[in-house]
Structure formats: C-alpha cells, structure tokens
Amino acid sequence: MTSQNRQDDESQPLLQPPNQGESTPRQRGRPGLLIAVACVMVSLSIAEFLEIAAMTKVFQDTACAEYYRHHSNSSSVPDLDEEKCKIGPVMREVAFVAGWQATIEQLPGKS
Fold first, then answer.
1. Which residues contact 91 (CB under 8 A, 6 or more apart)?
2. Residue 62 belongs to domain spanning
3. How far apart are CA 58 and CA 60, in angstroms?
C-alpha cells in the first residue's frame, strides 16, 4: 500500500453521514409499541394499588373479628359492619400487620 492510499484512507470518516432522504434507526420509532408498554405499566400500577386496598380490608376484617371474639361474651362473632371495625385497637392491629408486611417485602430473596 502506498503512502498516498494510506493517507486517503485515514482522512475518510469511518461512519458515513446519513442521507437526507433516509431516516436513521433512532428516528424511526415504534410509537404503537411505546404506547402499549406504557399502558401495561399503568395497568400493573393500578393493579398493585387495588391489591393493597384488598389486603388492607382482609387485615381489617380479621383483626375486627379477633377483637370482638375476645371482647364479647358469646363464642360466635356477629355480623360486623364497617363502623364497628373502625375503632382504635382494631386499626392499630391493622397498621401493625401492614407495617410488618411492608418490611418483609423489602427483604432480599423474596420472590
């Protein structure tokens, strides 16, 4: 190879500039795919919040039934409406259980 050819090769850019009529891969997007991924992510976030609300209701019903089982004279728990479960001792127990649940979910190795 002559020194002139080597100098010509070294002065050439390694990447050719894109033509004005062509679009580069970064310019060509898939907006439909992006919208689909965003919708899935929003749906999963909403589902997670619904799960938290449902679990809180389960904790509350369990704590309420346990509270009235220990504090009533009969062995059976009567039908408990929402207002009877919104008392301090029951809500303290719900907060305690929910706090431990959040702590355990942060531990490594939980799958």
1. 60
2. 24-105
3. 5
User: Alpha-carbon distance 40 to 36, whole Å?
Assistant: 6
The DSSP secondary structure of 18-76, one letter per residue, reads PPSSSPPTTTS--HHHHHHHHHHHHHHHHHHHHHHHHHHHHHHHHHHHHHHHHSSSSSS
Structural domains of the chain, count: 1
| Confidence (pLDDT) at 63 | 94
What's the chain's average pLDDT?
Answer: 83
Tell me the pLDDT tens digit for each residue of 21-65: 555 555 566 788 999 999 999 999 999 889 999 999 999 999 999
Residue 82 lies in a domain: yes
Q: Is residue 3 part of a domain?
A: no
Residue 16 inside a domain? The answer is no
Distance CA 6, CA 13 (A): 13
Q: Provide the pLDDT for residue 17.
A: 73
What span, in angstroms and rounded, lies between the C-alpha atoms of 25 and 36? 20
**This prediction's pTM:** 0.59
